[in-house]
Amino acid sequence: MTFSIRIRLLAPTIFALLLFPAVVFGQGVAPDPTLISSPPPEDPVEDPAEPDYPDEDVEEENDEEDHEGFFFRFALGLGWGWVEGDGTMPPSKGIERISDPSHHSPVFNLAMSLGAGFLNFAVHLGVVMERMIVRADDPTSIGFTLWGIGGGLTYYFTDHDFFVTAQMRYMALLLFMPGVICEDYNEDKYEWYKGPGIAATLGKEWFKEGKDGGVGIGLQFNYARLNHDGGFSFDYMSVLLLLTLTHF
Q1: What is the DSSP letter of 189?
Q2: CB-based contact 221:239 (threshold 8 Å)
Q3: pTM tops 0.85, yes or no
């Protein structure tokens, strides 16, 4: 009896010991919250009400304005000139008659124009001086200097300030002949030839940002038909490389 009583007393204890691990392991271990993956973030949705601003480069292009207002240009040129005579020059004291004279030489040019315009067009009036640096020496020494006055039109035809200029001028060619014998007046050494002339220029200028002034370079062609009262005439032509200073 004593052994049966002990078995009865130990039975509840043994059952509790067997049940305890099952209860504990059945509950499991709480997962690490840091290991739980979160859903990927959603892409931001653009606000349809937000305006679409243009690129800065496009804005700068649109900010470029046409040339307008007061126009001024000063030009300094250097190039080559040709002069051809047609016929026999009028006689001069101490110089033999000269038939069909011709000469070519480096030339120096100065010109200035004033005017106004709008929408990249400018209408202007100007003066010009052009001189053959080397005198002719066959058959006698002769110096050639041209003066002119006239009007012109300039147009800037790209956003990069390329320009074209056309001019109509009234030209005067002054001949200096130091070999003429002067009896009364020194003016006998000079003769004037006058006539129409044209000029065409193609060039490129660079204007400072936000400014109306700039410098540039150009290529110019000049032609003039110059006549004397006695029926003798000269054809003059030159090609110049210009340096320009412009306000427009």
Answers
A1: G
A2: yes
A3: no
Write out the two tokens for 236. 């003059």
For residue 102, give every residue at least 6 positions away whose Cβ sits within 8 Å of its Cβ, in sequence order, or none: 82, 83, 84, 85
* 63 strand-pairing partners: none
Looking up tokens 């004033």, which residue turns up?
114
Instruction: Say how far apart CA 115 and CA 166 lie, in whole Å.
Output: 14
| Interval 194-246: pLDDT, tens | 999 999 999 999 998 878 899 999 999 999 999 987 788 999 999 999 999 99
How far CA 153 is from CA of 38, 126, 164, 191, in Å, comes to 74, 11, 8, 32
Distance (Å, whole) CA 37 – CA 223: 87
Give how far Cα 196 sits from Cα of 74, 208, 227, 234, Å: 22, 37, 9, 11
Q: How many CB atoms lie within 10 A of CB 145?
A: 16
Residue 59 has pLDDT above 50, yes or no: no
pLDDT tens digit sequence for 148-186:
999 999 999 988 899 999 999 999 999 999 888 876 666
